[in-house]
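[09:14] KT: can someone run the structure on this one? pasting the chain below
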Amino acid sequence: MVTQEQIDKLRSAPVASPSLIIDGRPHATSDSMPVVSPLDGSTLTQIPFAQQTDVDTAVAAARKSFDGKVWSSLAPKARKNILLKWADLIEQHAVEIAVLGVKDNGTEIAMALKAEPLSAAETIRFYAESCDKMYGEVAPTAPDALGLIHKEPVGVVGIIVPWNFPMMIGAWKLAPALATGNSVVVKPPETASLTLLRMVELAHEAGLPDGVLNVVTGDGNTTGNALARSMDVDILVFTGSGATGRRLLEASAQSNLKRVYLELGGKSPHIVFDDCADLDAAAAAVVAGIFRNAGQVCIAGSRLLVQHSIHDALLEKITHLTQALRVGDPLDLNTQMGALNSEAHMNSVLKMLDGAAASGGQRILQDTGGFFMEPAIVAGVKEHDALFQQEVFGPVLTVTSFTDDTDAVRLANASELGLASGVWTNSLSRAHKMVAAIKAGVVHVNTYGGADNTVPLGGFKQSGNGHDKSLHAIDKFINHKTAWIKL
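[09:31] RB: done, structure tokens below
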């Protein structure tokens, strides 16, 4: 069990300036960019700023390793053992990595430890175990023919990871891509690159062959764009904003028509009916579902929809819990909400609250130099208000009342996004009807969050396509090849 003493010893540890990792070794660049800590606004270190030529070098290394079959031709059990060793190494270094990540992106340490290195290790183990369990198929044919369906790795995978949970979301994409035998170039987020760089170092320590996993750091306009437009990247997977997702689709169309899989965030409704068996549990789940990691969670339950008869009672409970949250130093185990990722992002969240009748929502702890704000609750939000429609990606909960089931479904679906949702009801019939009616990739019932790797995460509508998590995620990274044999 991690202690505050362990964390405090790592808090002041200097952060070395990392290199790109290409073809299994450090790769020098001519440019760099500062890493600004959201805890106090200080510069932690510098990371490389990969230019077009650096990305081309990384893609070429991935292509060489794939064409040379240094990874895909290994026996599935051998690939599994390397991935399992990688997961073990991540777990062994979990506290060190979690503290490094908190200094880089501001997530509260208690959550960061579980959601980043420990979650990444768990995900890698899940897909490692799939390596020797992916069978081909025999088609049901007439007696004079044999139809075989082979599953093959696609080739070079480009992965662009967001800054809110770079290790967790990175593992969702890296693990199935590698388990299926592909080679990878990953671009971490420019405001939270350090943990993914460390994660790739540990992959090579575990025995991953050179060139199979390469990492390039930099911004989206230069580094990300170079990866997206590469003529030698076969698949691009991304989690982030809708605006960037559209640009990646354009880059695919303007280059080699690479497959593009997108998870573009959400504006998730959290619905509480008046037959909810435990309003205290619902209130606690609502608060955790929007304010953990300062609301910087793709599935955050940012739109509370509450039946009018219990509106005031539930709002009172939520307000009380929110006001009691400990906001502050993310490296304190008792902190319940940490910092926002960057000053620019904090300012964008604060701007979205301009003119809103919010309870909370002010910048706080400015004397620390860090990027902190109070959690905000905005009641009486209407369907066409900007706060109802637009993803804030910060600690802002909107509250809207509804009358009946039909009204709840209408409001829940009154968004261009459809990633997640939640329903609190004591009626099994209503729960099933809500699951069927809500247009979202995940519908939580009498809980919010916590779904493990056995189930997929994917968006409906403008929340994207494809799936992370579960065995369904493997489909993105394989080609199905048919062999039709005349007997």
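[09:33] KT: thanks! The mean pLDDT is 97.
[09:34] RB: yep, looked fine to me
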